[in-house]
Amino acid sequence: GQNIDQPTEMTATEGAIVQINCTYQTSGFNGLFWYQQHAGEAPTFLSYNVLDGLEEKGRFSSFLSRSKGYSYLLLKELQMKDSASYLCAPRSGNTPLVFGKGTRLSVIA
Amino acid sequence: AAGVIQSPRHLIKEKRETATLKCYPIPRHDTVYWYQQGPGQDPQFLISFYEKMQSDKGSIPDRFSAQQFSDYHSELNMSSLELGDSALYFCASSSTRRTDTQYFGPGTRLTVL
């Protein structure tokens, strides 16, 4: 089985930086995915980390520490459209993704 | 680029009726996944298919069944619908020859009255 822990809700100001943490316990770890999901819409792929370190992709970066079972998603220069849920999904072997409860981010002016 | 297609986008059914949801994966993707997402919940994995064979089974009720056809599209069949089946149903596809990233379709919103 998997245990995934993320903060339930976060609020940040437009233009700021926010870090969304995810801790997990999973057997046969095979990478970690981050998805963004706006209310009523499909999850959208953001990043995939399989090695330790930071992966940067535009305003979004994702970090992974396999030994600590820890990842974070870093969002820079926040925009109102970034208000969404962010789902952390560590992968166990080749099994389908199991999502955490997600972090609902609210960006305020 | 082509994305995952799901139909219908919205579906309203009565209790005890049946429903069929369809999913057309991204071209050349060999794996299809079905997820159910209730209001305020995270997506829950139901079932997946790889090369037309069931590959993993999650929390899919016995009243539901699914299959993947020779053209790789998949259908989720739901019978004896209950009020609690009202949810968003997402299909995702991936290619085992690439990073296996799952790309989600827009979902079908099922409402059971």
Give a quick account of the main beta sheet of chain A: strands, pairing sense, barrel closure: 5 strands, antiparallel
**Radius of gyration of chain B in whole Å, from Cα?**
13 Å
Instruction: Tell me the quaternary state.
Output: heterodimer
* End-to-end Cα distance of chain B: 37 Å
Number of helices of chain B: 0
Secondary structure: number of strands of chain B: 11
Which pair has the most extensive contact? A-B, 20 and 20 residues
Structural class of chain B: mainly beta
Biggest beta-sheet profile of chain B: 7 strands, mixed
Radius of gyration of chain A: 13 Å
What is the share of helical residues of chain A? under 10%
Mean pLDDT of chain B: 93
The chain-level mean pLDDT of chain A equals: 93
Structural class of chain A: mainly beta
Strand residue content of chain B = over 45%
Question: How widely separated are the two ends of chain A?
Answer: 40 Å
Q: Provide a count of the helices of chain A.
A: 0
Q: How much of the polypeptide of chain A forms β-strand, as a percent range?
A: over 45%
Strand order of the largest sheet of chain A: 1-3-8-7-6
What does this structure look like?
- The complex is a heterodimer of chains A (109) and B (113).
- With 109 residues, chain A is mainly beta.
- Helices cover 0% and strands 60% of the residues of chain A.
- Chain A has no helices and 10 strands.
- In chain A, the strands form 2 sheets. In chain A, strands 1-3-8-7-6 form a 5-stranded antiparallel sheet, with no helix packed on it. In chain A, strands 2-10-9-4-5 form a 5-stranded mixed sheet, with no helix packed on it.
- Chain A is globular, with a radius of gyration of 13 Å.
- Chain B is mainly β.
- In chain B, the strands form 2 sheets. In chain B, strands 2, 4, 5, 6, 9, 10 and 11 form a 7-stranded mixed sheet that branches. In chain B, strands 1-3-8-7 form a 4-stranded antiparallel sheet, with no helix packed on it.
- Chain B is globular, with a radius of gyration of 13 Å.
- Chain B starts with a strand and ends with a strand.
- Classes of the chains: A mainly beta (109), B mainly beta (113).
